[in-house]
Amino acid sequence: MIQYFKPFTFLCLLFLGINFRAASQETIASKLGYPADAKLLIIHADDLGVSHSENIATFEAIDNGSVNSASVMMPTPWVLEAVNYAKANPETHDFGLHLVLSSEWKNYKWGPVSSTDKVPSLIDEHGYFHEACRSDLNLKEVELELKAQVERAYAMGLEPTHLDTHMGCLAQTTRLTEVYLKIGQKYNLPVFVLDEFLSKEIKETYHPKVLVDQLYTISPEDYSIGPETYYTNTLKNLMPGLSLLLIHTAYDNEEMKGMNVDHPEWGNAWRQKDYDFFTSKTCKELLEKENIKLVTWRQIKEALY
Amino acid sequence: MIQYFKPFTFLCLLFLGINFRAASQETIASKLGYPADAKLLIIHADDLGVSHSENIATFEAIDNGSVNSASVMMPTPWVLEAVNYAKANPETHDFGLHLVLSSEWKNYKWGPVSSTDKVPSLIDEHGYFHEACRSDLNLKEVELELKAQVERAYAMGLEPTHLDTHMGCLAQTTRLTEVYLKIGQKYNLPVFVLDEFLSKEIKETYHPKVLVDQLYTISPEDYSIGPETYYTNTLKNLMPGLSLLLIHTAYDNEEMKGMNVDHPEWGNAWRQKDYDFFTSKTCKELLEKENIKLVTWRQIKEALY
Asked: What kind and span of H or E run contains B163?
């Protein structure tokens, strides 16, 4: 396995254009009340809690835009703001946990939820998570920290609708993916994971009940052509089945410029463009014109778990 | 002792208008090369590290305004940005440590530098510092955490010029003050502490080498009249001896509005006003007209430690 990834590049390499279909998928559409060939889509904003800008832009994109799901990073400084939004919208929010094992920005940092002396392999010399995903983490410590993140969410009053993995760190190795699935099983939560990284043995042990058919997330190359073009093409060419569109919505303000310094990819301008598209009339009209049905992890959880 | 203080009110109650003079003070002026009756002033910005806004506004107020000293909160998310500024200005910065035992904002939080399971009395149910200063903290845990904050600073490459106490938490009880002075003695650093809270015994044990004659910091009442009036009067009526003026400089932007939500006192508008005055021509002219000599903790440290 690759030992060190630059921040963010992993998710992109892993996810872009990957198309897989599990035999069981037809049951998801029917269990959600749609025909088997319906185009089902989750428009999912990552990184809640990471900054005030990310939080308030995402709340707006949910309240008045087309974003219908998001996930929260429990170790981040602004997590309480995201939790308070969820509590104020107990039935309608669709917030999962964006499980965190990295602290990737230059001047702005966070560390584990668990006591740092219990998870030495997860932290750098200053007690923060490592900058990049790592494949050499102690698996017992990973499990301890992931449990701590889930338990912290429940303790704060957030009942997550699903689990996913920040920067794809939990898809680094089969063993990390196994820990990830184990956590999903323990808390009876849908886990977003790629079919092709699951061995037969792992599938038989953890039997994930839902598999996403198509996953889309914008790459630096697509971004350079233009996010509106990428997102328009994605929606126009959406395949039948369950699709997941991962985005990052924030306002391009001073806070985000400081956070994203020296890292334009997945940075402030990028996140503002995501916000712009997914709060636009163009997006809403496209979803309707293409007969795309927005579904949430909450609906999936309630139907299958 | 009062058990629980509302955030920020303590500092104000404690410091405002307090005027004391130690017999040894004349030596400070002479050791710094000034006559005994010189008006010496440290214009000190608290809370570096607390937010990107606070950092960049304070850097600007130091680079081009009249602020000449500041202190850094090691447990905060943006501390690396402050440390990197200090490293880029190794000779000229005057950054001490604003020792932290509280996490006072509603939706934006931080916790101890030390492992949380080593300092249970310092944290709330979610592992953050308590919202307010507390007088019932375990003193061994306080000492452990303060050492961890100082050690973290050195490990990051910041050599602090002094120590002070965020929200005055370390002036809550004589015993807390004793721990605070012990840390100063251990690392041979000037400690900002109020003379009137020091017993004869504590003085003989820790013999602080420097005592501030006058301490000024704006109160909510002064703020309501107008910060410019308060600061102008303060500078016009500055007494001879060593004075410390504690301020908080930040830009009143979205990040600060989010951080200071439900807490206008010491909040975003307030910090912008502090920034405005201490980057103004008015302030610079007043300092010159009143023959006020700006001195730093670094100068004091080099002269007396």
From this structure: strand B163-165
Confidence of residue B152 (pLDDT cuts 50, 70, 90): very high
User: Average pLDDT of chain A?
Assistant: 90
Distance CA A160, CA B115 (A): 27
Residue A159 sits at the vertex; the CA angle it makes with A91 and A92, to the nearest 5 degrees, is 20
Element (H, E) at A186: helix A174-187
Which among B51, B78, B107 has the least Cβ separation from residue A84? B107
Length of chain A counted residue by residue: 305
| Cβ atoms B248, B45 nearer than 8 A | yes
**Residues on chain A touching B53 (C-beta within 8 angstroms):** 254-255
Please count the structural domains in chain A: 1
**Residue A298 one-letter amino acid:** R
- The percent of residues in chain B predicted with pLDDT above 70, rounded, is 90
CB atoms < 10 A from the CB of B26, how many?
14
- For chain A, helix (H) and strand (E) counts, in that order, are 13, 7
pLDDT tens track for A271-285: 999 999 999 999 999
3-class state of residue A40 by DSSP: strand
> How far B53 CA lies from chain A's nearest CA (Å)?
7
Reply yes or no on whether the pLDDT at B20 is more than 60.
no
- Is the minimum CB–CB distance between B262 and chain A shorter than 8 Å? no
What is the Cα B216 distance to its own chain's centre? Answer: 12
* Domain harbouring B268, CATH code: 3.20.20.370
B126 closest CB neighbour out of A52, A106, A155 = A155
pTM comes to 0.92
Domain limits for position B11? 4-304
| pLDDT tens-digit series, residues B198-220 | 888 888 888 887 778 889 999 99
Report which residue type is found at B11. Answer: L
CA distance A147 to chain B (A): 14
In angstroms, the CA A286 to CA A290 distance is 6
Q: Which residues of B touch A79 (CB under 8 A)?
A: 109
**Residue A199 — very low, low, confident or very high, per pLDDT cuts 50/70/90?**
confident
Of A109, A152, A253, the CB nearest to B253: A253
Separation in Å, CA of A293 to nearest CA in chain B:
34
